[in-house]
Specification:
Blueprint lengths: L28 E5 L6 E5 L12 E5 L1 E3 L3 E6 L4 E6 L8 E12 L8 E5 L2 E6 L7 E10 H8 L15 H10 L7 E4 L11 H9 L3 E7 L22 E5 L1 H12 L4 E4 L1 H14 L5 E5 L14 E5 L6 H10 L1 H13 L10 E4 L1
Parallel strand pairs: 1-17, 3-12, 3-14, 4-11, 14-16
Antiparallel strand pairs: 1-2, 5-6, 5-8, 6-7, 7-10, 8-9, 9-10, 12-13, 13-15, 16-17
Helix pairs in contact: 6-7
């Protein structure tokens, strides 16, 4: 029987959609789901340490969220909001053309200029073949520094913000970023990693748990609306990734010794399983990942998954259901609602093992 996306739905009171992060990163709540027994436990995130053993490997995504949301004006004075969808893979200065999501009062024409601030303007180019808007940015200095000056954190649409509230804007810059973020390029955070504090990371490593990084630059396709109920018609957006040879070797060695590989987030899961299915084993690799993990998928690498609570009817929920079983996941989600867990990017977490 063909599964439909509507079978991955659950009722969620809007007040459970987290608008702010927990006061302490590792103080968020944690629902532990044991796949084999179906047992569920309710803890604090810092207690995840109790389930990690020496020799296990935590794999994290060290991508860095760039302040890719720009607020500008047309010559006529009309406001324009621009979200950069594809961050340049190499450092650039003076000029770059990239895909963007535009929102404006009135129509924006090809050739029209948008002014974002002193030293940064954009020109609307003919759209790409798939219809995505293209903007040619002109600026002074490195693009990364220009965005740090004029850009804002590209929060998901379900987190409501007043752009004039500079205190909250500054807080989002700090908290919508993992503490181990290194490589700029994401326009959405790998949110499972937001729960790790410096103290927790230190305690994990002190216990003898290995900490391994890879990079996948999370794209805005994570939040793109899905327009079909037929799962077989869904296609994943491609995102650039890098898995080093050293990281792959460490993972293989620890698995051979009988230790667990625990993915921190769906992005890590997709990279590891993409490489393993591509080559039949883990090895260093880089490129584009568009792996779609849905129920029926055979996992070759991960033994555990740390993840946030996801939106209903999404590819993220399909991935989690593929790992733990649809019925078990939906039961856990419904229990989380009953216990008033906080959902989505700034919300609480699950540990599935």
């Amino acid at each position: 029987m063909e599964l439909r996306l509507s079978q991955f739905d659950f009722p969620l009171p809007p007040e459970l959609i987290a608008q702010e992060p927990a006061p302490e990163r590792d103080g968020s709540r944690l629902l532990v789901l044991h796949r084999r027994s179906g047992k569920r436990e309710h803890l604090r995130f810092r207690q995840i340490l109790e389930y990690l053993n020496p020799g296990d490997v935590l794999v994290v995504n060290d991508t860095r969220v760039v302040p890719a949301r720009l607020l500008g004006r047309k010559r006529t004075g009309g406001q324009v909001e621009c979200l950069i969808l594809r961050y340049p893979s190499e450092p650039v200065s003076q000029e770059v053309t990239t895909s963007c999501l535009l929102r404006a009062a009135g129509k924006i024409k090809v050739g029209e200029r948008i002014f974002f601030g002193e030293g940064l303007e954009g020109e609307i180019m003919p759209p790409s073949p798939n219809g995505t808007a293209l903007v040619r940015f002109r600026f002074s200095g490195p693009f990364e520094k220009v965005l740090e000056t004029y850009g804002r954190v590209p929060l998901p649409p379900y987190i409501r913000r007043n752009d004039q509230d500079e205190t909250r804007v500054a807080k989002d810059r700090e908290r919508y970023q993992t503490l181990y973020a290194r490589h700029p390029g994401a326009v959405a955070a790998p949110t499972a990693g937001l729960h790790f504090s410096q103290d927790l990371i230190a305690a994990i490593q002190k216990k003898g748990v290995l900490w391994v990084s890879l990079t996948l630059h999370v794209g805005y396709g994570t939040f793109a609306p899905i327009k079909t109920d037929r799962i077989e018609e869904l296609r994943m957006h491609a995102e650039s990734f890098n898995l080093s040879e050293d990281a792959a070797r460490t993972l293989l060695e620890q698995k051979e010794r009988g230790h667990k590989v625990i993915a921190v987030g769906t992005t890590v899961t997709r990279v590891l399983e993409h490489v393993a299915h591509k080559y039949g084993t883990l090895r260093g690799d880089a490129g584009e990942c568009d792996l779609f993990i849905k129920p029926g998928f055979t996992f070759k690498v991960i033994d555990g998954l740390v993840t946030n609570f996801h939106l209903p009817r999404t590819t993220l929920l399909l991935l989690v259901s593929a790992f733990a079983g649809r019925e078990q996941v939906l039961e856990a989600y419904n229990e989380a609602v009953e216990h008033r867990y906080r959902f989505f990017s700034y919300g609480d977490a699950m540990f599935i093992l």
